[in-house]
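Lab notebook page, bench 4
Experiment: in silico fold of construct C2
Operator: M.H.
Input chain length: 308 residues
Purpose: comparison with the prior construct
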Amino acid sequence: MIRHPDMRHDDVVELRDLRALAAVVRLGSFTRAAESLGYTQSAISQQVAALETELGTELVSRRPVRATAAGERLVEHAEHVILRLDVARSELVETRGEQGTLLLAVTSFTAPRALALALHRLQSERPRLSAVVHATDPTAAVAAVASGTVHGALVDGVAAPNEPLELADAGLLASRRVAEAPLGVALAEGHPLLAQDSIDLEALADAPFVASPRLLDDGGRLADLERRRRTSRVVYDGLDVATLLSLVGAGVGAALVPGSTEVAPYGVGWRPLRSSRSSPRIVHRTELVTLRTRAASSERLVAAFRPT
């Protein structure tokens, strides 16, 4: 719990309630927040309500579920507090000895060949090694590393060439580049823009998009395009790349996709984004994220990934 110097003895903010609020705001749903944290929906609702009662202000609008201005500000602070406490606890746990199974979180567009080669190297060195690979979104992947739920995470996103991804409180974690690939647009086969070698963002001004907010984080670098994606008639709120590409192939709309993605089986073509003065060059980047204080299992994981 967190106690402010001016609070009465019984005026405390529970860390559990902050976690609930942060999950509800991040996922946009009490139900999904409950699934993520392992509580019932009723418990999550009570925790957020308790926090609102304690602070005397509404933090989340219920219909639709959306953070108020006060809620957004509190979550901004809460995420830093939660991450720092999780990292501190995880570093202490790591010093007690290594676990028998390697746990790795991955996001949907991370370099699949790099992952396969790394796991092959690890198993060649330690034939009895077992591994569990869990697919999730970038925010949850970083949080899993911080909390010690996994030994590391492969996280992807959009960045300028040779620049690191913008991770929350990156100073608490260690990250290294695993791969970079061109970023481009996936379109249904036969689309007129596929006749070009590359595509300018301006050519997509009126193009329908399949929005996929959990699949690819552009870090705000494509703000104008992102606004158009948010107004799309179709939003895919999942983590399966095949589903997104199937929607594109059916002609529902275009989608941002890294060049390392296999698109042909889905009736989809791909062209890289063209850089210009108004649209600087950006790439799709994959990084391996671990705790700065690492146990032997994490050290082996880092050694197995070789930048491409």
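Observations: Residues 1-10, 95-99 have pLDDT under 50 and may be disordered. Residues 98 and 297 are 6 Å apart (CA to CA).
Next step: discuss at group meeting.
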